[in-house]
Amino acid sequence: MEINKIAVIGAGAMGSGIAYWSSFNGFNVSVTEQNDELLKRGMQKIKDNVITGVNKGKITPKQAEEIMAKIKGTVNLAEAVKDADIVIEAVFENMDLKKEIFRKLDASAPKHAVLATNTSALGITEIASVTKRPEKVVGMHFFNPVPAMKLVEIVRGNKTSDETVKIVDDLAHALKKETVTCRDSPGFIVNRILGPILNEAVLLLQEGIASREDIDKAMTLGTNFPMGPLRLADFVGLDVALEVSRTLEKGFGEKFKPPSLLVEKVKRGELGIKTRKGFYEY
Ligand code: CAA
Question: I need a labelling partner for 220 at 20 to 30 A (CA). Which of 69, 80, 179, 214 fits?
Answer without folding.
Answer: 179
